[in-house]
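Supplementary notes for students who missed Thursday's class. We covered one full example, reproduced here. Read the sequence, then the structure, then the short commentary at the end.
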Amino acid sequence: MTPHTGNSYEAIIFDCDGVLVDSEVLAIRGERTALEAFGLSYSPEDYVRKFVGLHDNAFFTALRDDYRNAHAGDAPQDFEEQILEGRRRERHLLTPISGADDALEKARAHVGAIAVASSSRAHFLQSKLERTGLYDLAHPHVYSADLVAHGKPAPDIFLYAAERLGVDPAQCLVLEDSENGVKAGVAAGMTVWGFLGGGHIFDGHGERLVDAGAVKLAKSFTDFTDQLDALYANAEHSPL
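Structure (token representation):
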């Protein structure tokens, strides 16, 4: 599949963590603290590059591999629960990313069809969107990678969302903050814009998203909606 190269799209698909809600910075802090107790230490930049965007199944597989390499043995039985507990300790601080509500409304006004396609487990995904007041703006097309065989960077969740929307993947625009997410959108044959508005973004992150296949970058939701408005203004004035 080849992403479309026209002036407009039929659907816009948003990632959730690090795009709609500022959860990645909280999860990274809590998880890294828990991992240090197991003798696993990562810089914030390396952690983002390696793990952000993965479904929990792939995340914990990678962590167990790192533990085995570091300690020449298997991780203890409570390994996953301790990491999840580290993540949960920060969740009360969750906020929507500034302008997310306006971006969802504007995207729906421009294209009609919007969705959320996330690596989060289904119950966590709905809870995060509800707690930040975004669920009703995104409903009913809110999809977790629990629904598909393979999480990001595989394209499955984006293809699933496009199928449920009834839109050709090549006519979809994806907004993603992670390399794994960008790769998934590109593999689905969609156009991907990189989003840099989350609290976990570091210097050089935008370049990495471009290297992964993002064709544009949005520094914030104000930047995203400005670019979207310009795109649709140009589409309206394009000759037939």
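Commentary. Strands lie at 11-14, 113-118, 142-144, 172-176, 191-195, 216-218. The CA atoms of residues 150 and 156 lie 6 Å apart. If anything here is unclear, bring it to office hours.
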